Amino acid sequence: MKIGPDAPPKGWYTNYVRTLPGHDWFPYLRGFGADRSSLMMSTSSRRSKR
Asked: How far apart are CA 38 and CA 15, in angstroms?
């Protein structure tokens, strides 16, 4: 994937995200297929056992 304000390079048209020059941007990611148990996990259960 290519990201930038200029025109996409040849052959990268479908894998190119155009940004605005001089502006910040943030990639938003979405996870598909997550079940309720993985979303409701508390932070204490993620900690490693010592």
From this structure: 30
